[in-house]
Amino acid sequence: RALVDAEAVGDERAVEAALRPRTLDELVGQERVREQLSLMLHAARRRGRTPDHVLLSGPPGLGKTTLAMIIAAEMTVPLRLTSGPAITHAGDLAAILSGLNEGDVLFVDEIHRMARPAEEMLYMAMEDFRVDVVVGKGPGATAIPLELPPFTLVGATTRAGLLPGPLRDRFGFTAHLEFYEPVELERIIRRSAGLLEAPVDDEGCAEIASRSRGTPRIANRLLRRVRDYAQVRADGTGTRAVARAALDLYEVDRSGLDRLDRAVLDALCRRFGGGPVGLSTLAVAVGEERETVEEVAEPFLVRSGFLARTPRGRVATRAAWTHLGLAPPQEPQM
Ligand code: ADP
Fold first, then answer.
1. For 179-203, what is each residue's pLDDT tens digit?
2. Which positions bind DNA (predicted)?
């Protein structure tokens, strides 16, 4: 599954570091977010104050970490990185907060997964730049107030709706990142190809972009596979033909579907006449766990209009039949 996973796979973050845009100007797409952030940072610089806290929401691989790094770079301050799952006690957060210097940017990835008591500590830290650190247990426990220097919190979450209201309300600016258009992905791929010194022509970029699921992380990953193929099996240049051959070899098809995605559609159309069919039945047919089909394959199939979830079960759309090269039934379900 690794090729079309929007999360970083293995030690990919290290490889990605080289491709990360460092300034707002280098960032491709997300025009509105870029302009809004640029204005906000400019104003903060002019006033000599730390910028408001920023919440970034959106699916993985769209540039949340990159934006946090850019905010710190534009303010020329250090960035501290942590993540919600790493903060299991209020004490973990207190330790991080007490290590901050004035103006630092603190990036908390997956902020919705932070422990509850830490969340409450964060409310106060964000609003008043102080926290109460509780020392001891039971009746002898005492709260020691701790003043914090002003800092900027940048929180990232896959969905802003996952955050409790009080936390959400303490961000001065919220940006929602959307999936990228093919032309934007082409620009990202062209830029990355330049940095990797891997020649890819315009048609090659377009071919990779169309298979990248609207996600820069996946685009960069597919580019690396095309580069391998171009170097070993061709003359080094990623043309359309080379990109096609490479991505066909890795079983990422022209719409960005991988083997599991196609197996689900194939079972749905060929074995169940396009549905409706229950999730469990469909999962058995492709030899996968129910959760895998529902959480790994379905979201992208639904987003790209190949599959619909109905109260009676899963249904293949007309586009699914066409994609598989099959004739849709006379009276398609959808
Ligand atoms: P997230 O934190 O949302 O999971 P990242 O910021 O780690 O995503 O981005 C994943 C990869 O995609 C990085 O290597 C980054 O260089 C690239 N990327 C993301 N957004 C952009 C963009 N707008 N322009 C260029 N590259 C991008």
1. 999 999 999 999 999 999 999 999 9
2. 290, 309, 314
CA of 86 to the centre of ligand 1 (A): 22
Q: Hey, CA dihedral for 35, 37, 39, 45, is it positive or negative?
A: negative
Pocket flag, ligand 1, residue 247 (CB < 6 Å):
no
Model pLDDT, residue 15: 85
Per the prediction, the chain carries an average pLDDT of: 94
- Dist. CA 211 → ligand 1 center (Å): 17
Among residues 26, 64, 59, 70, which one has the least CA distance to residue 190?
A: 26
Our answer on whether the CB atom of 223 is closer than 6 Å to any ligand 1 atom is: no
From residue 113, give the alpha-carbon distance in Å to each of 34, 103, 164, 291, 328: 26, 25, 11, 20, 43
Q: Is 303 known to sit in a ligand binding site?
A: no
Residue 68 CB–ligand 1 contact under 6 Å: no
* Under-70 pLDDT residues of the chain: 1, 331-334
pLDDT of residue 307: 97
Residues catalogued as catalytic: 64-65, 109, 158, 217
Residue nearest to atom 7 of ligand 1 (CA): 65
> CA–CA separation, 130 vs 38, rounded Å?
28
Q: Is the ipTM of this complex over 0.95?
A: yes
Q: Are 321 and 269 within 8 A, CB to CB?
A: yes
Q: Is the CB of 216 under 6 A from ligand 1?
A: yes
pTM for this prediction: 0.92
- Tokens 């907060």 belong to 97
Has 180 been labeled as part of a binding site? Answer: yes
